[in-house]
Amino acid sequence: MYSIGKFSNICKVPIKTLRYYDDIDLLKPSYIDSETNYRYYDYDKIATIELILLLKSLHVSLADIKQIIKRKDSVQWDSIIEQKISELEKKKEQITKEIEEMKQLKDKTEAGIPVIQGASFSSCYFENRQDTLVYTLRKKISIKFIDILVRHLFSQVYAYNLEVDGKLMAIFHNRNIKGNEADVELLVPVKDSNGIDGCRIVPNGKYACITVKGAYTDLALGYEVLKNWIVENDLIQRGDMMEIYQKGLIPTNLNLQDLRPDLSRNPSDFLTKICVPVV
Q1: What is the pLDDT of residue 128?
Q2: Which domain does 61 fall in, by range?
């Protein structure tokens, strides 16, 4: 009969683990000295601990191992092995998939392709636009508070009983004001001015455009692409660049009394047209 220390050395199982197995009735000592409370193990316990270690290596839970040991004479080893083979095959498939994804990621980084894809851009194109009557609101404001300006704009549209007739637009007259502020003009197409001050015409003509699919933070690159295209095609810009929010935070069904941003839409799905009059 072995002391717990010798049994631990023979089986290469920590004493702490053997005590835990005793506490949960997984592997009881063969004998416990009533005076010293020392645990002792018979030779046949070695076979039991080896079975426990084997099942643990197959990722069988201790609760299941306990049941298997209790009825070990009728254990269906084929069933256990088949189950573990199936589990390992699934893990193999998952690992193979992850390896392939990592290889693709490595290929992207080596080719200089961004790991996280940003916005996508259409080709630059021309658009002939008609005169557009708009109600405008212009203010120097912190970029993070533009949503407040949008709500203010639409509250005025509602108060003046103006009928919206198109997508919200914006012109950033100055993006480099200190304190992360911008000189922003918001424009919303309306059917009639109702004699209200603040309405003006966005003139007709030939416009150079690009459509950006992605978050508003990616629009700056769209501006650069469009500006370079204008230069490359010997065009002359004859007005301010304008953003038209075709799909984004502004809800499709406007409630002018209680305008709320559409937070259900993923920013990667936003569609914004940048356009500028050219000759």
Answers
A1: 96
A2: 2-75
